[in-house]
UniProtKB/TrEMBL annotation:
InterPro entries: CLS_N. PROSITE patterns: PROKAR_LIPOPROTEIN. This is Cardiolipin synthase N-terminal domain-containing protein. The chain crosses the membrane at residues 33-55, 67-88. Signal peptide: none annotated. It holds the Pfam family PLDc_N. Residues 49-90 form the Cardiolipin synthase N-terminal domain. It is found in: Cell membrane. Keywords: Cell membrane, Membrane, Transmembrane, Transmembrane helix. It is a multi-pass membrane protein.
């Protein structure tokens, strides 16, 4: 298995495990727990996006000023900052 596909494989495995009980009949209390599970899945996916953005930022040969600015954006606006980094920060043209 390629090391680049390992995080994707692990996240798909975790998502599969979390979604295995979706077809069962649930009582009122379990419906609330199912909602918490959906928030957990969304939070984990958002965390993965932020982690991949930080790792990509560290690996890129940008100037220290650009790395500090994008790092601050990702830190203070976690999910939106990471998405903005992938949309704007990785382009060939300079954003900052």
């Amino acid at each position: 298995m390629n090391t680049r596909t390992l995080p994707v494989s692990l996240s798909l495995l975790a998502l599969t495990i979390l979604l295995t009980a979706c077809g069962e009949d649930v009582s009122g209390g379990e419906v609330i727990a199912g909602g918490i599970g959906l928030y957990l899945i969304g939070s984990l996916l958002a965390l993965l996006v932020v982690v991949f953005a930080v790792l990509d930022l560290v690996k890129k040969p940008y100037s220290i000023q650009k790395k500090v600015i994008w790092g601050a954006i990702i830190f203070f606006i976690p999910f939106l900052g990471a998405v903005l980094y992938f949309v704007l920060g990785r382009n060939k043209r300079e954003v900052f």
